[in-house]
Design goal:
The protein is α+β, with helices and mostly antiparallel strands. The protein has 19 helices and 21 strands. Helix 2 packs across helix 4, helix 10 packs across helix 11 and helix 16 crosses helix 17. The protein is elongated, with a radius of gyration of 29 Å.
Length: 565
């Protein structure tokens, strides 16, 4: 067979096209490659990966993580996946991690198993359509099993939320530290719930701050971090950074104004000709004096206006210049400027205090001001933290002690992910036992269900059950146990359980089967359910590929490019 064009010219299959078995091998190889990147991160004993990449500002960055979503994101920020099927596969499973902040590794493992086992069935003569139908039947059966296995969760049940949060964290944390982190996460989720009118918990309004020696606590309000920027990263520039607290003494019942831009009293002084440069042309000493006098008067007028409005603290995204800051300080108005990293902090302050973000200082009015129970600022490590506390708005800040400076980013991610997972549980009000118990329970039920399926779809249903058991096998392998022995023990425990489906999973601490409910290993129902749905959808998408057209490119082995020249 040839691939032709309008001129009648043609190229051989080997130059343009791979088909059938070769195409399926190509697809399976890509899914295996992606799986190899993330499989060892699964579970509380997951291992970390190091990726040389770029950050969101295109600056070189080294990421060390045991989080599948962060690992894939780091690779994509670099050169990405240089294999078209791998890129398609990652795109198919990436949404679960971005939406739920958990379950991504499970989805990748399960999808890879479904693709590989499905491809093997196709090689044996089963039509891809029959495989897809069988997987759909098994997935429907899985939903019924999870319905029977799940338990309700009250969104204000602090202990239940703590268990969910603790389950989502890795086991390399000290148990007391994990409990402390889980406690503040549960408190923040309950705070979001109490502030919500419709049951939706928007975790964008919860910030996580980590620092050495700080007590674990949840603040109702926003803590703004300010630090030297990228251009000030050198030691000399860091020393030049103004570390003096903008709010030297706590301000109680503070009136807060929020400004999106800076205060530029000279912004209208532009040249009017065809010149590109803007500014003011001053031809004499008297003109200079007159201009300076007018500028100073404008600054004083702005400061008077804010003082007359009763503003205690002005929050600005841009940096205010010295004369403006001095004029405001002289009138008792504290300035918290440079609130530009992240930019969302300016809007969190506004929501917390009830203020309205305005673009220009002239737009400020009494109705656009907010209030905070207390505002203070102090130096914390290499940052200045401005605390807007005891606010009425539904904004919260979690502060945890990271122990060491090198652990700050890792602990912040752990707590942030735990927050997302606990919020999902609170919104859905339904949880499952963890430790791989859902995968084992579904696999057992689906395997018993398979003989009732007529036709070749039965083979796909059995393959689905086998694929599910790859999840607890990976948990056992990552914990240092033999996956075959562990899987045999888990099957025996499920067969001998007094209930079906049974909440029995793999205990990473002991290497033995464990009742996950009794052990407090709990996860939101939606995470495993979504992982199954995502994996089935990805497998369906890839198993129906019977040819790969890739003109002019050598179809070599898959290898993610994680380093740069």
């Amino acid at each position: 067979m040839t691939v032709g064009d309008d001129d009648g010219a043609s190229l051989g299959d080997g130059e343009w096209l791979i088909r059938d078995e070769a195409a399926r091998t190509y697809v399976v190889g890509a899914t295996r490659g992606v799986r190899s990147l993330v499989e060892s991160t699964l579970g509380p004993r997951g291992m970390e990966k190091l990726v040389d990449t770029y950050d969101h500002q295109d600056e070189p960055e080294t990421v060390v993580t045991a989080d599948a979503g962060e690992l894939i994101d780091a690779i994509e920020r670099g050169d990405g996946f240089n294999h078209p099927v791998a890129a398609l596969f990652v795109d198919s499973v990436d949404s679960i991690q971005r939406g739920l902040h958990d379950g991504g590794t499970t989805a990748v493992i399960l999808a890879s198993e479904l693709v590989e086992r499905g491809a093997a069935l196709v090689e044996r003569g089963v039509h891809p359509g029959s495989v897809v139908v069988g997987y759909a039947m098994a997935s429907d059966r899985a939903g019924r099993v999870l319905d029977a296995l799940a338990r309700p969760l009250e969104s204000d049940d602090r202990d239940a939320l703590r268990r969910v949060a603790a389950t989502s964290m890795t086991a390399d944390l000290d148990p007391s530290l994990r409990r402390a982190y889980a406690r503040v996460v549960a408190d923040a989720v309950r705070g979001l719930r109490d502030a919500s009118d419709d049951g939706w918990l928007d975790t964008d309004y919860v910030s996580v701050r980590t620092a050495r020696g700080e007590p674990h606590r949840v603040y109702r309000g926003q803590i703004v971090r300010r630090r030297p920027g990228q251009h000030e990263a050198s030691r000399a520039n860091s020393l030049e950074f103004d570390w003096t607290p903008a709010v030297p003494r706590p301000v109680a019942d503070a009136t807060v104004a929020v400004l999106e831009r800076g205060i530029d009293v000279e912004e209208t002084a532009t040249s009017l000709g065809g010149k590109r440069d803007s500014g003011v042309e001053l031809r004499s000493a008297s003109a200079v004096a007159e201009y300076a006098s007018g500028r100073d008067a404008a600054i004083e007028a702005v400061a008077d206006r804010l003082a007359d409005l009763g503003v205690d603290v002005l929050v600005a995204q841009a940096e205010l210049n010295g004369p403006v800051r001095s004029a405001l300080s002289a009138r008792g108005v504290a300035v918290v400027d440079r609130v530009h990293y992240p930019k969302s902090d300016i809007y969190r302050v506004a929501r917390a205090t009830g203020a309205q973000v305005v673009a220009h200082v002239d737009d400020l009015a009494p109705s656009k001001l907010g209030r905070a129970g207390r505002v203070r600022e102090r130096r914390v490590g290499d940052e200045k933290w401005a605390y807007f506390e005891d606010c009425r708005g539904g904004v919260f800040t979690i502060v945890v002690d990271a122990g060491t400076a090198t652990g700050l980013r890792k602990r912040e991610r752990l707590v942030s992910d735990a927050l997302e997972v606990a919020a999902v549980a609170a919104m859905d009000e339904q949880v499952l036992p963890g430790a791989g118990a859902p995968a084992l329970a579904v696999a057992r039920d689906v395997r018993h269900f398979a003989p009732s399926v007529a036709g070749r779809e039965q083979l796909a249903v059995e393959a689905f059950a086998d694929a599910l058991e790859a999840v607890p096998s990976a948990l056992a392998r990552n914990a240092g146990s033999d996956p075959l022995d562990s899987l045999a023990d888990l099957r025996t425990a499920h067969d001998g359980a007094g209930t079906s489906p049974a909440p029995i999973g793999f205990d990473a601490e002991t290497g033995e089967p464990v009742d996950a409910w009794a052990a407090g290993i709990v996860e939101p129902r939606r995470i495993f359910s979504q992982a199954v749905e995502t994996a089935v959808a990805a497998a369906e998408r890839l198993l129906t590929i019977d040819a790969v057209v890739y003109p002019g490119v050598d179809l070599g082995a898959f290898s993610p490019r994680t380093e740069h020249d």
